[in-house]
Amino acid sequence: FAQNQGYYELYIDLLLRLHQQDPSQGYDSQAFHISERARARGLLELLTEANADIRQGVNPELLAQEQDLRQQLNAADFRRTQLLKGGYANTELEAVTQEIASLLNQQQTLEGQIRTTSPRYADLQYPQPLTLPEIQQQILDDDTLLLQYSLGTERSYLWAVSKAGFTTYELPPRAEIEAATQPFLDYLKSEDGTNPDAGIPLSQMLLAPVAEQLQGQRLLVVGDGVLQTIPFAALPVPTHTSSRQHSPSPPNPLSQFWERGNPNAQNQLLAPLLPIWEKGLGDEGDLPVHLSPTAS
Length: 296
Description:
Blueprint: H1 2-21, H2 27-49, H3 60-85, H4 90-117, H5 119-125, H6 132-138, E1 144-150, E2 156-161, E3 166-171, H7 174-189, H8 200-207, H9 211-214, E4 218-222
Parallel strand pairs: 1-4
Antiparallel strand pairs: 1-2, 2-3
Helix pairs in contact: 1-2, 1-4, 3-4, 4-5, 7-8
């Protein structure tokens, strides 16, 4: 599972580097879609770990091509890892990175062939997430903001999606975010309530980039990695800078943004483990309420 997720992480990073070079080509929205595919892929890994046989009735030739592509991806990823461990030329790293992107594109083409001949297997092996326009049209309203995170080894990303807007932000690497997460979780588990500012560093990392967009919005949060364990509603409201004067009272919790228009909505949090690729979420236009393990 970790290796497959590594491919997606690399692909996302490559697309967003291309976006920096040419923002007009839509690479940022492609990266968002790949992030959704990575989350959906997690379902398949869970089925595999449960020894579920999902390959019955699938064309053996297509399965062989699929296996060959997977082996090529493994080999290319190994070469990339070896380059990063030792000295390398930028051209060498760029070449292997482009090779991995090409193999992933070939995998998508093969996916289309498998979907035509074996739709049941394809639905499990290659679940189709909602596209960015579909999320904006079917999931979000004018008063809802989606915050979706993708953690990476070298850098992480946050996508802020509204009914009419879409912005990508670069965040610190996974290790830095994980280091800031543990003190906050320890504070939540403590009985004496010491260190009420424990969540400030994490809030600054995760929410400061979108601080100006939070006011008046109901939030949907899709976490990644350790962020799946965080009750975002308990985080302090971020400031616009990394500095903050200490106050003897606990910081204002972010839960105010879940309470808008719904007295029971303080835990109105999109399940961190749920990729947005199921159509028809909620009833009568209401967004679903799901809690992370530590949010109850």
